[in-house]
Design a protein that fits this description.
Elements (H helix, E strand, L loop, with lengths): L2 H14 L2 E7 L6 H14 L5 E4 L11 E4 L6 H8 L3 H14 L2 H7 L6 E5 L5 H4 L3 H12 L2 E10 L6 H18 L3 E6 L10 H5 L3 H7 L10 H23 L5 E3 L5 H15 L16
Parallel strand pairs: 1-4, 1-5, 2-3, 2-4, 5-6, 6-7
Helix pairs in contact: 3-4, 8-11
Bound molecules: guanosine-5'-triphosphate (GTP) and magnesium ion.
Pfam families: ATP_bind_1 (PF03029)
Subunit structure: Binds to RNA polymerase II (RNAPII).
Family: Belongs to the GPN-loop GTPase family.
């Protein structure tokens, strides 16, 4: 096959590749931007080109090379000054402004050769749990740009120290999952800092009965009847919510230990399954590699 024809057939193949996006969300400081960098480098090492997009108009620093940076369009501090709003209100304003007229966004993200995006979002969880903005954005990616989207909800493993913290973290992940209605994976970040913590397996296996039993003595030594009563009620509530999560297998977490390539690989494998990565790819014609 001549070089010209070969190039033509290869470009037809790449046109037929699917488009994929990882949407990285979670509470402030849980490690979203760090995850984006880890995943970008992991994909690069696996010879997959990806583009990282910073959609946090307040993020001044990040380690990944951002192909698109929302701060080139709008910045939180400019909105704070011009609209006289606080930091959270300004962030919401920035995203509303960005999604009101999506022409800038479409211009930035609709024309890559390799359509694999890792999108870094802000840490205000109200954006995912009860506001419509991130949902609007996922719909734009899915319905207008035909991306296979997977939402990754990150939680800092340091907050998962006991059953009540774990259940409240699980509920916030569940609330984002229900709200966004896309394939969804929960990740426990910063596991490198836990170093051999025995309790971690219980959390990863979602062994809620054991977790609740572990904390059943909480407040038992207190002499205050009011505190004892409160602890009893709290444990009952945790047990009921835990049972619900358990019975319906609603939430599960994957650990991320940045020192351990296998943990990153496992996460990528789950994302590939969730986004059906590679299933849209047409097999190459046998002649494509012949000059
Ligand atoms: N040891 C360790 N530290 C981490 C990890 N991920 C993030 N960090 C640290 O946690 C802090 C916050 O990380 P970021 O990646 O900025 O978190 P973020 O979720 O993007 O934060 P916001 O954008 O402000 O919501 C930084 O000091 C990181 O170096 C990790 O896997 N291991
Ligand atoms: Mg960040």
């Amino acid at each position: 096959m001549s070089g010209k024809i070969k190039n033509l057939s290869l470009s037809v193949c790449s046109f037929k590749m699917g488009k994929y996006a990882q949407l990285v969300l979670g509470p402030a400081g849980c490690g979203k931007s760090t995850y984006c960098n880890i995943m970008y480098e992991h994909l690069l090492a696996s010879r997959r080109t990806s583009h990282v997009i910073n959609l946090d108009p307040g993020a001044e620093e990040f380690k990944y090379p951002a192909t698109v940076n929302v701060r080139d369009y709008i910045k939180v501090e400019d909105v704070m000054e011009s609209m006289k709003l606080g930091p959270n209100g300004s962030l919401v304003y920035c995203l509303e402004y960005l999604l009101q007229d999506v022409s800038w966004l479409l211009d930035q993200i609709s024309d890559f050769d390799d359509d694999y995006l890792i999108i870094d979002l802000p840490g205000q969880i109200e954006l995912y749990t009860h506001m419509d903005l991130i949902r609007q954005f996922t719909e734009l990616l899915q319905t207008r740009l035909n991306y296979h989207v997977c939402c990754l909800y990150l939680i800092d493993s340091h907050f998962i120290v006991d059953s009540s913290h774990f259940i409240s973290g699980s509920l916030s992940a569940l609330s984002a999952m229900v709200r966004l209605e896309t394939p969804h994976i929960n990740i426990l970040t910063k596991c490198d800092l836990l170093d051999g913590s025995k309790g971690l397996d219980l959390f990863l296996e979602m062994d809620i009965t054991s977790l609740i039993a572990m904390n059943s003595q909480e407040g038992a030594g207190s002499t205050s009847p009011a505190l004892q009563e409160y602890q009893k009620k709290k444990q009952k509530l945790n047990a009921a919510v835990g049972e619900l999560l358990d019975n319906f297998s609603l939430v599960r977490f994957l650990p991320l230990d940045r020192r351990d390539e296998d943990s990153i690989d496992r996460i990528l494998l789950e994302i590939d399954n969730a986004t059906q990565y590679g299933e849209d790819e047409e097999p190459k014609e046998p002649d494509d590699d012949i000059d």
